[in-house]
Amino acid sequence: MKILLYDAKKYDRESFERITPKYEDDIHVEYMEDDLQLETAQYAKGYDAVCAFVSSDLSKPVLEILSNVGVKLILLRCAGFNNVDLDSAKEFGMTVLRVPGYSPEAVAEMAITLAMAGNRHVHKAYIRVRENNFSLNGLTGLNLFGKTAGIVGTGKIGAAMCKICHGFGMKVLGYDLYPNKNLDFVEYVDLDTLLQQSDLISLHCPLTDDSYHMINEETIGKMKDGVILVNTSRGALINTEDLIKGIRAKKFQSVGLDVYEEETRNVFENREDDIMESSITSRLLSFPNVIVTSHQAFLTAEALEAISEITMENAKGYLTGNIDEANRV
Fold first, then answer.
1. Active site includes 121?
2. Whole-model pTM?
3. Alpha-carbon dihedral of residues 52, 57, 59, 61, nearest 10 degrees?
4. Over pLDDT 90: what percentage of the chain?
5. Active site includes 263?
6. At what angle do helices 10-19 and 301-320 cross, to 10 degrees?
7. CA-CA distances (angstroms) from residue 318 to 26, 72, 97?
8. How far apart are CA 308 and CA 313, in angstroms?
9. 173, burial (CB in 10 Å: exposed 0-12, middle 13-18, buried 19+)
C-alpha cells in the first residue's frame, strides 16, 4: 500500500518516521506539505490511500477526484470527521478510518491550561513582566476550588476533563446524550441547567448539525455572569459574533479558544506576513480576557506517537481485512 500524507509538518514526519519502519514490508508513506483540497487531490494518483487531518477538504468534489485516481482508503489522523462527506465516501466505495482515542488527556490538559491561564491573566502578566511592569492591577482571578465545572460532552476527552476538574475540588456537571457510567462523581443535567449553574464551561462534543452554534446569544444569556468558557473541540460549536457580543457585555471572566470558526486557512500555518481576510480573530485577540491558541491541544509527544501508531494500524487492518471497527467512520 502506498499512502500520501497531506499537510505534513515537521512533527508529523518525525513521529511517522519513527513508526513506519516496522510496517515497511507492506506499507510505504510519502509526505506532502500542502493540505488536501480541490487543487491538490490529483497528486494522489498512484496512491492507494491518503492521510488527512482536521483542516483537510474531504468534500464530494475532492473525494470524487481521489476516487477517480484510484484512492480507496481515507486515513484520518484525528478523531473528528466533520470535514468528511461520508455519504459521498460511501457512494465512491471508500473506507474512512480515524484515530478516536489518541490521547484524551493531552486535549483535556490544554483545556484546563486555557481556563487557568485566562482566569489568572497569565498571558497579560507574562507580557507585563517582560517590559518590567510588575503591577498587579487587572490581574485578579477566581479560585476554581469549590466552584462548578460544566463539561459538555463526556466522551474520552470530556471524561479526562471531568477528572481534572474533580481533582481541583470542583463540583462537576455533565451534559451528554450518552452519560458515562464510569464517572460516578459527575452529576448529569440538561444543557440549560449546566449553563445556568456552571462557573467553568468546557466544550468537548463533536460538531454535528445539532451542535452547530450551540453556544449562541440565547445560550450565552443563560450563563452566569463571570463564567469561564473554553473550547478545544470545534470552532463552529460557538457563534463567534454572539460570543463577541457577550465578551463586550462583560459576561465572561475569561474565554479560552484553541479552535475558532475562521481557523481553516490559519491552522498550523505561519501567516505573520499576510493581510487577514476577516477581522474575527483580530477582534477576539483585542479583548484582554481572551486567549486564542493555534489548534494545539493535541500536540504532545505522546499524542503524536499514538496518532502515528493507530493510523498505521488502521492501514494494516485495511490491508489484512482486520479493521478495528471502533475506528471506522
1. no
2. 0.86
3. -110
4. 88
5. yes
6. 50
7. 11, 10, 9
8. 9
9. buried
Over residues 1-51, the pLDDT tens digits come to: 999 999 999 999 999 999 999 999 999 999 999 999 999 999 999 999 999
SS3 state of residue 117: helix
Which element (helix H / strand E) includes 186?
A: none
Q: Among the options 295, 302, 325, 328, which is catalytic? A: 295
> One of 77, 121, 261, 263 is an active-site residue; which one?
263
Decide if 207 contacts 82 (C-beta within 8 A): yes
Q: Which residues contact 14 (CB under 8 A, 6 or more apart)?
A: 304
DSSP reduced 3-state for 288: coil
Strand ranges (E), the chain: 2-5, 28-31, 49-52, 73-76, 95-97, 148-152, 171-175, 187-188, 200-203, 227-231, 252-257, 290-292
What pLDDT, in 10s, does the model give residues 54-79? 889 999 999 999 999 999 999 999 98
Q: Would residue 272 show up in a list of annotated catalytic residues for this protein?
A: no
Catalytic residue among 234, 265, 302, 328: 234
CA–CA gap between residue 69 and residue 67 (Å, rounded):
5
